[in-house]
Amino acid sequence: MQPPVKAALLGASGYTGADLLRLGVRHPGLKFEALTANTHAGKPMASVYPHLAHAGLPDLVANEDVDFSGIDVVFCGLPHGTGQQLIADIVESNPSIRVIDMGADFRFRKPDVFTSAYGAKHVAPHLQDVTAYGLTEHNREVIAKARIIACPGCYPTAALLALLPLAKTGAISTQDLIIDAKSGVSGAGRSPKQNTLMAEAGESVSPYAVGVHRHAPEIEQELSLASGEDVIVNFTPHLIPMSRGELVTAHVKLGNATNADDLRGVLRQAYADEPFVRVAEKGELPATGHVRGSNFCVISVFDDRIAGRAIVIAAIDNLVKGSAGQAIQNFNVAFGFPEATAIEALPLFP
């Protein structure tokens, strides 16, 4: 049996970092040697996340205190813009190390798109040549060999799983794509924010970043690549008063497909052998409660009342399939483990 892959996790005190640990400690081929959280450096992990008290994890340290020379893989859960230089330094100083980034820093194939979306210059554009976009089901071959794997955002994960096969085959038009998306408050991160306080988010649904959300260019990037056309989407996210979960409803024009049954057939063919994507039966409504705590995605398709249109719905857990679970799925692909290792658990219900 091969020795475990030695891992460091940067940003272990965030929600995605905590979920990566919850899942990753059960992986027989993965061992966490270093966990960083600059604001909590010196603390045991249990003091930040008591639910991980039994996991036998190392204490938290600052980023600069990690010796990366003995590390095989770095998982990065740092906020956008904060990990670029650090990742560049790690990769360039350690020729064999690989990085799986759950943040936004390397998701864009063109660094100037990152600058436009996030308002900051990309400090390591040369690393895009060794980076793979980490939507596992659609990029395995590149992921398997990449030095850096950039996991998609949670909204793009759900939207792209639902739409990429349809755009690639021409089953839908890439014009007039309307994506209505809803996510639990964990998608906003753990730092205190007024709009995610219980008194303000509870019993209230609210849109945010209307017309300017940073995940829209990411969705457009991948749909354009799949279809060979320049794609612009109408994307509106909403905050839902629940801790985790994500539902994306896409309103689409039909292309060479004639109805929802045709679209369902395309999706079933695309995902027939996929362990984590399930195309629902006709009439079945996806719900976030059907995937909670799991790495699964459920997709369903319905005919619209408007002729020539259809509605495609996808549900994921934003912290698992939309982040930490997908990171471990990509780790399994990159390091030759069975793809479902450590992320095969069924959803929690109720």
What does this structure look like?
With 350 residues, the chain is of the alpha/beta class. It folds into two domains: 163 residues, 3-Layer(aba) Sandwich (Rossmann fold); 164 residues, Dihydrodipicolinate Reductase, domain 2 (2-Layer Sandwich). Helix content is 28%, strand content 21%. Helix 1 packs across helix 10 and helix 6 packs parallel to helix 8. It is globular. The two termini are 38 Å apart.
Indicate the low-confidence ranges by residue numbers.
none
Number of DSSP helices? Answer: 10
CATH topological fold name of the largest domain? Dihydrodipicolinate Reductase, domain 2
Global shape: globular
Mean pLDDT: 96
> What is the share of helical residues?
25-40%
The CATH homologous superfamily of the largest domain is termed: Dihydrodipicolinate Reductase, domain 2
DSSP strand content: 15-25%
Highest-level CATH class of the largest domain = Alpha Beta
For this structure, the quaternary state is single chain
Main sheet characteristics: 7 strands, parallel
Total strands: the figure is 14
Order of strands in the sheet with most strands: 3-2-1-4-5-7-6
- Please tell me the CATH architecture of the largest domain by its name: 2-Layer Sandwich
Count of domain modules: 2
Q: What gyration radius follows from the Cα positions, in whole Å?
A: 20 Å
